[in-house]
Amino acid sequence: MQHKDRTVYHDPSEVKAVDGKVDVDGPDQVDVTLTPEAAEETSERLLQQSFKARGQTRLKNNAHRPQD
Question: Which single residue of 8, 10, 39, 65 could bond 34 by disulfide (Cβ 3.0 to 4.6 Å)?
Answer without folding.
Answer: 39
